[in-house]
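Students often ask why inverse folding is considered easier than folding. One informal answer: many sequences map to the same fold, so there is more than one right answer. In these notes we will look at a single instance of the problem. The structure comes first.
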């Protein structure tokens, strides 16, 4: 419970404190003010009840009609406050959600947590981060607003209602118990508290498992959604291998997991409802029955009885907030735990324990690099083939060769500063590095975004984009530059994607290039043309190229063989 409340407070701090915090706090104050106005109207309604029913009892038409006007005024005021309150609440929801999302994105992207916290790479891997950032941030703020405003207004309301109930229930309940006369003064006040305390305890006992069930439900829903997204991402492979049935089974399994938990969830909600639903229905009537002894003893008038019932049910309804909102409370607890996990883990992405993490990283001067005594490990602790020592001068071209699975991609990850598992020393330049993977990303925004990644396409003039597209051999895609959205990149072949990635190098002109089978989908002539472009545009760049065939067009190059052959060979042009 402590960790949970600690987590909730940490999340509140992230959303509500910091620069421009006053805007959110001012909006929150307005929301509260309007809620208090609503409470004031409710208090007036209790007094109104007495006056109105007394007027009815005495057949006083003029007084009853006057009370109708009072009623209309109170309702108008209440409706205005509720409407404006909702509007301010929605603005505040957006304001705080934006801040929380911003903090989550900063941590998620900031220390490359999205890379380190993948399953298998970290002991605290984050499942479905997309759901946490997109949905949990929104849900947390939504529930926080509902719950916190309700708690505060209910406390204020409770004080007002109890004061009223105290004033009007100045009579005692008298009865005989085991021959002794018992008198309980102001019994209606004590009864309200006992009635609700007992009911709250029952609710909590019945609803306790809900939090865990809601938590699991959110995770399973996200897993199902992720499986659907994977079908979209791998549509061609699935369609070509007629994988529909396998996909269907995979989806069915995920949905079954949803159904299974859902059944438990609705079962538990049903059990909780067995108590809360009748309670909800009776809470406005039962107080009347409790007050009947006083009425029959003629301690109160009919109007007084109605006022008493109204004040009692206001006290009981306010005290019952916990009962009525048990489901929301379970949800906020689950959402807060998921979100706090995300923040705690991303603030300090932890690698797996027990695997050497002793790579000494230094900054080399210029665009040269060196590797000394490097040995890399997989996350499950398996040592990869030793990496031969090498010293690369600025402007050199290196072909990294080695059999499949020997650790070439892992080596590039280590060189770019990501791979944490290993020992030895790496000297790399501090800046000017650009790495291209085998499967480059294209973006569903525009072709320009793919060419300029990671820069902003608006920083590159269109004439330059056109020129570069022509140079990388994609004149047939020029008209796509004018398109927006997924249409702009729809159907691009892997070779075309790789050409777009090479275009990135021409745009950014890095001084140090890592190519991880970045031209594997191209024919030898096309590869040679693109490498010739690199030599022309980046004559001084150091290029490390992982490939299964020698990159002849990069000659002269040296070969850095990982695995059984440990010699470093020199090949002349
Ligand atoms: N996240 C990981 N978890 C477990 N094992 C991993 C992980 N990443 C890499 N490995 C293992 O490390 C080894 C080296 O993988 P790597 O991708 O670096 O090889 P590679 O030489 O680039 O292979 P290829 O030429 O086939 O692309 C492989 O056995 C791989 O299964």
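Output (designed amino acids):
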């Amino acid at each position: 419970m402590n960790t949970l409340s600690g987590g909730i407070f940490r999340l509140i701090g992230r959303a509500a404190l910091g620069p421009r915090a006053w805007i959110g706090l001012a909006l929150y104050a307005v929301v509260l003010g309007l809620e208090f106005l609503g409470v004031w109207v409710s208090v007036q309604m209790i007094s109104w009840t007495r006056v109105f029913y007394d007027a009815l009892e005495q057949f006083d038409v003029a007084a009853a009609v006057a009370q109708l006007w009072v009623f209309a005024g109170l309702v108008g005021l209440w409706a205005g406050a509720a409407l404006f309150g909702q509007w301010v609440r929605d603005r505040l929801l957006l304001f705080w959600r934006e801040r929380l999302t911003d903090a989550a994105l900063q941590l998620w992207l900031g220390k490359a947590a999205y890379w380190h916290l993948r399953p298998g790479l970290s002991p605290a891997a984050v499942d479905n981060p997309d759901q946490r950032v997109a949905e949990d941030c929104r849900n947390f703020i939504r529930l926080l607003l509902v719950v916190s405003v309700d708690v505060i207004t209910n406390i204020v309301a409770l004080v007002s209602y109890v004061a009223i109930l105290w004033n009007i229930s100045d009579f005692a309940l008298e009865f005989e118990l085991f021959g002794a006369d018992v008198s309980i003064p102001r019994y209606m006040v004590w009864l309200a508290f006992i009635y609700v305390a007992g009911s709250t305890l029952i609710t909590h006992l019945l609803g306790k498992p809900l939090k865990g069930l809601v938590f699991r439900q959110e995770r399973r829903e996200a897993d199902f959604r992720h499986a659907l997204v994977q079908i979209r991402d791998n549509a061609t492979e699935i369609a070509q291998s007629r994988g529909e049935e396998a996909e269907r089974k995979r989806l069915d399994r995920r949905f079954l997991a949803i159904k299974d938990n859902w059944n438990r969830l609705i079962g538990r909600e049903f059990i909780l409802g067995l108590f809360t639903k009748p309670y909800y229905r009776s809470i406005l009537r039962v107080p009347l029955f409790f007050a009947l002894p006083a009425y029959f003893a003629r301690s109160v008038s009919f109007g007084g009885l109605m006022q008493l019932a109204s004040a009692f049910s206001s006290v009981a309804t306010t005290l019952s907030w916990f009962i009525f909102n048990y489901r929301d409370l379970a949800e906020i607890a689950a959402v807060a735990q998921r979100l706090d996990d995300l923040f705690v883990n991303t603030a300090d992405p932890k690698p797996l324990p027990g695997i050497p993490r002793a790579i000494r990283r230094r900054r080399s001067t210029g665009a040269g690099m060196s590797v000394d005594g490097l040995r890399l490990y997989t996350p499950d602790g398996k040592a990869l083939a030793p990496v031969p020592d090498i010293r690369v001068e600025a402007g050199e071209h290196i072909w990294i060769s080695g059999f499949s699975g020997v650790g070439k991609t892992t080596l590039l990850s280590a060189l770019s500063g990501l791979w944490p598992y290993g020992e030895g020393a790496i000297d790399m330049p501090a800046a000017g590095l650009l790495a291209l993977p085998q499967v480059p990303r294209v973006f569903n925004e525009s072709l320009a975004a793919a060419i300029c990644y990671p820069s902003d396409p608006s920083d590159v003039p269109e004439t330059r984009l056109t020129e570069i597209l022509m140079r990388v051999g994609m004149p047939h895609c020029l008209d796509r530059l004018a398109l927006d959205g997924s249409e702009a990149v729809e159907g691009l072949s892997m070779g075309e994607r790789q050409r777009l990635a090479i275009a990135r190098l021409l745009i950014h002109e890095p001084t140090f290039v890592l190519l991880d089978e970045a031209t594997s989908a191209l024919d030898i002539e096309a590869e040679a043309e693109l490498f010739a472009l690199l030599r022309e545009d980046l004559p001084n760049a150091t290029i490390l190229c992982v490939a299964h065939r020698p990159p002849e067009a990069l000659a002269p190059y040296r070969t850095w063989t990982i695995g059984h052959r440990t010699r470093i060979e020199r090949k002349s042009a």
